[in-house]
Amino acid sequence: MDNIQDWAAYILNNANLAHAPYLYRLYTLSTTLRTWLAPLLDQITRKPDLATLALLLVIVLVSLKILDMLWQTLMFWVRLTRRLVFWGGLAALGLWVWSRGPEGVVEDVGFWRARWGEEYGFWKEKERVAKLVREGGGGFGGGQGRAGWF
Predict the structure, then answer these.
(1) Collapsed DSSP state (helix, strand, coil) of residue 23
(2) Distance in angstroms (rounded) separating the CA atoms of residues 142 and 7
(3) Distant-in-sequence, close-in-space partners of 125: CB < 8 Å, separation ≥ 6
(4) The whole model's pTM is what?
(5) CB 145 within 8 A of CB 135
(6) Transmembrane region positions (predicted)?
(7) Which among 78, 55, 83 has a CA at the least distance from the CA of 70?
(8) Please, are residues 136 and 145 in contact by the beta-carbon 8 Å criterion?
(9) Inter-axis angle of helices 21-46 and 48-135, to 10 degrees?
(10) What is the DSSP annotation of 87-137?
């Protein structure tokens, strides 16, 4: 361990930094930052209230940054899913037209439109009957509606 400290002292000695100018720049930058930050850190450590506020501010900023990263991740997956569904649907539509031809597609659409129309009419009639029963016009319960259930 002493060997590392001796080499660090040798490298960071101002007189011996001529062989590595980037180390000299790094050393001067660190000393400049130390002279600027030392009074600030000294002030924060003398007043614990200020230190608490600074710590709270740092915690809030870090948590907001993490929340922003989570939001960006969520939005990435939402956009990816939306694009995959869109382009997958477009590819399926193109494959359908390619395999059936335009006349086959029109025939299929007409068939499903008629089938869904029948289903809609069936459930519309069920709704009409249920509405009549609910209003008491269906003959069930003697025209009392829900009052005759019990």
Answers:
(1) helix
(2) 105
(3) none
(4) 0.46
(5) yes
(6) 50-71
(7) 78
(8) yes
(9) 80
(10) HHHHHHHHHHHHHHHHHHHHHHHHHHHHHHHHHHHHHHHHHHHHHHHHHT-
Rounded (5°) CA angle 27-28-32: 120
53 CA to centre of own chain: 30
d(CA 27, CA 9): 12
CA distances from 126 to 10, 115, 116, 119, 141 (A): 94, 17, 15, 11, 19
**Residue 43: partners with Cβ closer than 8 Å, 6 or more residues away:** 50
DSSP state of 60: H
Give the whole-angstrom CA distance, residue 57 versus residue 74.
26
Question: Average model confidence (pLDDT) for the chain?
Answer: 82
